């Protein structure tokens, strides 16, 4: 099954189950919906420059994160609200991640599942919400320590606002977190700490200063406030500011191997994909996630071959041309 067939089947399956909101543009926006429109178009600004005299047949897409060697730089986002797709969705994403030799992420839906997921034998990352109850966050860090998971982190961008078609989040449960509070969690954690929701050089530098080992550059699917910058718009300046002192994972609007290539060229070490994980689950559960991730990785490989990038470190911004207009 190729990409287009996979997407068609996903839409059919979603309609059968009455959960086609992932394909509905009005289902994910705040205010004017500008952010969602921008997310759909931002990758079109960047064209890929080939280098056929330097083309290579064999490429290596492996990457090391937090001491784990992964087969590809494509990771599942920390998803929630998945039980309308299948039973035990977090377990199935973890099983797919294990089969792919990558790491899995646990979001709010998996807060009681850290031990179960870790026992599957897959590198596991827990992303907490910025709970108003700070003691709850500390207890989650202790739970992560107990199960010796790969990394733990916190969203910092879900403290304000509510998207127009919100089906999940309860903003009264969340509150802004200061650097000293996050630093307390970093010190408690016996594994690398991640900040998710970074969109500025200033926040990235603070994350580095308080000892974080990685950041996830994302605007949370344009779910928080309108007119946010898109992750790849700020990615190059963030990478320049922190150099190689932290890993950078990018999330948001990534649906093709070309998108992944562009993120890596602009400074990312890896990407998280939410929608594509969702689509894999609905098409064929564990096997569906494995299949769509392999499709994306095969697409990435083709771009690496045609630009002469033997491995991920060989991908750089000279392989991109930024247009000042968008071609639909």
Written overview of the protein:
The chain has 328 residues and is an alpha/beta fold. It has a single domain, classed as TIM Barrel. 39% of the residues lie in helices and 14% in strands. It contains 10 helices and 12 strands. The strands form 3 sheets. The chain has an 8-stranded parallel sheet. A two-stranded antiparallel sheet has the order 1-12. It is globular and about 55 Å long. The mean pLDDT is 92.
Task: Indicate the topology.
Layout lengths: L2 H15 L16 H8 L4 E3 L14 E3 L2 E3 L3 E3 L12 H12 L3 E3 L7 H6 L4 E5 L5 H14 L3 E5 L23 H10 L4 E6 L2 H9 L4 E4 L13 H12 L4 E5 L5 H9 L4 E4 L1 H33 L12 E3 L6
Helix pairs in contact: 1-10, 3-10, 7-8, 9-10
Shape: globular
Classify the fold: give the CATH topology.
TIM Barrel
- Mean pLDDT level: 92
Give the radius of gyration.
19 Å
Helix content bin: 25-40%
What is the total tally of β strands?
12
- For the biggest β-sheet, the strand order reads 4-11-10-9-8-7-6-5
Number of helices: 10
Number of domains: 1
Query: Which regions have little confidence, pLDDT < 50, spanning 5+ residues?
Result: none
CATH class: Alpha Beta
Structural class: alpha/beta
**Sheet with the most strands, sense and barrel status:** 8 strands, parallel
CATH superfamily: Aldolase class I
The sequence of SSEs as H and E is: HHEEEEHEHEHEHEHEHEHEHE
Ends distance = 26 Å
Task: Give the name of the CATH architecture.
Answer: Alpha-Beta Barrel
Residue share in β-strands: 5-15%
